Amino acid sequence: MEKGRRGTVMKIIPYQHGFGPETVKMWRESKEAAIGQKDIHSFEEHLYFLNEILPATHDVEIALSNESVIGIIAYNRTEISQLYIHNDHHGNGVGTALLTRAKEASSGILTLYTFEVNEGARRFYEKHGFRIIGRGHENEEQLPDLLYEWRR
Questions:
Q1: Residue-wise pLDDT tens digits, 49-69
Q2: Residue 136: helix, strand or coil by DSSP?
Q3: Is there a contact between 78 and 107 (Cβ–Cβ < 8 Å)?
Q4: Spatial contact of 72 and 15, defined as CB atoms under 8 Å apart
Q5: 64, 61, 63: which is closest to 80 by C-alpha?
Q6: Candidates 3.40.630.30, 3.40.50.720, 3.30.360.10, 3.30.70.920; correct CATH number of 2-109?
């Protein structure tokens, strides 16, 4: 068990399929709030991506509070693929706890992409030592991306 800011008690566990629908719902709502557009994939496609595609190349972990999903991170030794926090838990230390796990498991360098429009994520990553090293990654959402890097 970990304690975030504002008393949020959470535990971080490896993702399990039983949490799939709740995780995808949280992920989609968080992303929509961050970029101002609905996900282009169906709920079922998103769940398949979470259960079958993402774990093949990344460690996937979720943060739980009172057995409810409040965050997800997918990472490997060199990159963070996904990091989403429940909209009601922004600023509670959930993202910091998940990001710390990825940093500890990294090779000493991590990269990630975030949407340029996602100012909250940009502030968060920059606060945690990430610096912009590139721009303009192609993505399905057709939004400008920023490539960030962190070095130990």
A1: 999 999 999 999 999 999 999
A2: coil
A3: yes
A4: yes
A5: 61
A6: 3.40.630.30
